Fold Glycosyltransferase.
Amino acid sequence: MGTEPQRLHVVFFPLMAAGHMIPTLDIAKLFAAHHVKTTIVTTPLNAPTFLKPLQSYTNIGPPIDVQVIPFPAKEAGLPEGVENFEHFTSDEMSLKFLKAAELLEEPLIQVLERCNPKADCLVADMLLPFATEVAAKFDIPRLVFHGSCCFALSVMDAFIKYQPHKDVSNDDEEFVIPHLPHEIKITRMQLNEGVKQNKQDTMWMDVLGRALESEIKSYGVIVNSFYELEPEYADFYRKVMGRKTWQIGPVSLCNRENEAKFQRGKDSSIDENACLKWLDSKKPNSVIYVCFGSLTEVSLLQLHEIAKGLEASEQNFVWVIRRSNTNGEETEDIFPKGFEERTKGKGLIIRGWAPQVLILDHEAVGGFVTHCGWNSTLEGISCGVPMVTWPAFAEQFYIEKLVTEILKTGIPVGSKHWNRTIECNVKWEDIKEVVRRLMVEEEGMEIRSRALKLKNMARKAIDEGGSSYVELTSLIQELSNCKLNSNGF
Ligand code: UDP
């Protein structure tokens, strides 16, 4: 009697940031739904992001394990308790974090040694460049997960290869990013300091160089998007950049029940029922949702302008304000005098963490003011919600171009400066105008109908037989073949 080959076992090691850990858990759920055993490796303070939603996760496939390894904060010179990008308050801290990340190689090896059944594939973040060699030690493929889309990855590659920003004389002069399928223009102000001045910190350059090298040597790349969303860039990434790629998203759509949507990420600052009750009381497409993700800061002055703009737009709104935005100040100082009373019933303010996908997926929500983090953008797309784009840093200015110029499902607010903290650059009058253009004017209706088409495409992609479903199953098949070959079958 032949023995049944053991189930495929995939180990995930995401970067310690909400925008990487949240989609990783969704990806693990998608693999589990195909009867693949999955293990997620993380550090103590990041573990609840996985463990909490898994408590109520009713397994449709084999269990998702979480392996917790110590985080070497002290060794890297970081204060105790700093284990996530969210905690960084300076560039120096992120450099120390990279140092700490390098020290995670040995604990990762130990996890793989302990794996039972043995691991068959390691999916690790790009900023963990040692992962390709670690996987090679165990004779298993390493896949990279960037947390971004083919469009942004192609733009980043164009900057590395052609350095188009070097040929312009002013920071506010638009220039074309060369050799891309579309004519995309940007200014140097919208690039980070390092790229702008061609003097990246040497440690960053070193890590990025090694990350790129390890990506090129890796087995391939998992991308959280779907082919029909960015076909030219999916082809470009595969054919021109030469990456073997599987687009398996939008991964957030694996959360079909309200409870699963509610539990994504951190503990919500609002009760699920209270949130749904508030949204249920509003007409379809009458609420604009405002959220800048898990890392972007907003200055007090800019918060004031947003409050005035929202009030003047006369639209219902849900506005998420991260606690660190307040710098410990009382809310009275955040808002113009009397703002909360005047907008009572019209506005729902969530201080802290919002159940974003639950909110975006509600029919009352008809617009999304977003910082263009890739997850938020794709979640908005998956829910058919048109956007006001307000990029701050990272690759967000690139993603804004995808949304406003290629997909044409958003209107830019007019953000011009790359900075993790949104200073007071956009005035309340402009916020009011852009919100009204999206929510009440003819232009907004056209954008909405395009957004709805994308929503349907996104859902089709993930359903049985759809493009992402097919790419995921073919990846699983390929990994199973690798396993059989390495077992000498
Ligand atoms: N998110 C959330 N509630 C919040 C803030 C963020 O659920 O209050 C989630 C959001 O749904 C997304 C992730 O956190 O999945 C943020 O990732 P993104 O790439 O959009 O932005 P980042 O935080 O990395 O800038």
The chain has a mean pLDDT of 92.
